[in-house]
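debug: dumping io for the single-chain case to check the tokenizer round-trip. Nothing else runs in this session.
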Amino acid sequence: MSMIRDLRAAVRPSRPMPRKDTGTYDTTRDPATPSAVVDCAVYRDGVRVETRAPLSPQEAMRLVRRDGGFVWIGLHEPTEAEFAGIAGEFGLHPLAVEDAVQAHQRPKLERYDDSLFTVFKTIHYVEHDRLTANSEVVETGEVMCFTGRDFFITVRHGGQGSLRSLRSRLQDDPELLAKGPSAVLHAIADHVVDGYVAVADAVQDDIDEVETEVFSPGRKGTPRGTDASRIYQLKREVLEFKRAVAPLLRPMLLLSERPMRLVDPDIQKYFRDVADHLARVHEQVMGFDELLNSILQANLAQASVAQNEDMRKITAWAAIIAVPTMVCGVYGMNFKYMPELHWKYGYPVIMGITVVICLGIHRTLKRNGWL
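debug: decoded output
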């Protein structure tokens, strides 16, 4: 089917460079909108039904029940009161409604009688000139999706992850939207995972930068190391990334492998591609975690080696200084009868012997790498 052949092009445009994307994340809300509803539209045969005035969710659902199609409602951080009417109109399960309002959920897929509830964690790379101990590398948000037979509801939390551009691209492909709410669910899953891929590439650059600093030569050709707090901060950000990616693996496998009433069979096979990309990102993130562990251990080992080097140098100089200290200590005693005490050449001889002994010790220690 031509629609299926064009599915990937419709929902996955060319990926932007991870460090230059400034138009993907839109947090604005129309000040004239009195509720959390960002957009509400009815789609029939893949085409958006034009109306004279913006539709309320209740009006949109009445049109769907009367003439067919499905309704797609987008909300941004609704309150419990704002979401209550929509939940009642579409018969959403109370537990899913509670999760959608409160947010801070793990990525998951839950099946209720007549709907699917899916939670995605969105990840946004935070631009920075230089990684510091307080740098924020990734910023997270949430997209929660209710998928029904004739409705699709998205609830966004956080200051990034707008679906406005995605909705526009889908509206340009009526054949895809004609497949119903499951096509929108796939498009959102693919959009979120594509964001993971872009962020993983950007985080890889930060890790490479830290790794280079840790193992780059310092003075005398030895690795100079870096501030361990920077590595630890990057490790914490990678952990946040992993919390978004890892729990989503099983939901994507379920959507790609298990037949579901609410997922069109033609769309379901494309969830396998999303699951494959997600698995690769998961492997990357796990690799980041292990690599940062190794870098942190290497940096701490270098710090210990540097401290040992300093202690060896201090000990070596202390050994050299001990010789004149001992000689001066001996001849500083107040005894009347001491060897060479009244000898004419006693002073230069003792000083010469002291210098020779110190030079000998210095040469020996330097040959052994202590100086």
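debug: round-trip ok. Confidence is low (pLDDT under 50) at residues 1-34.
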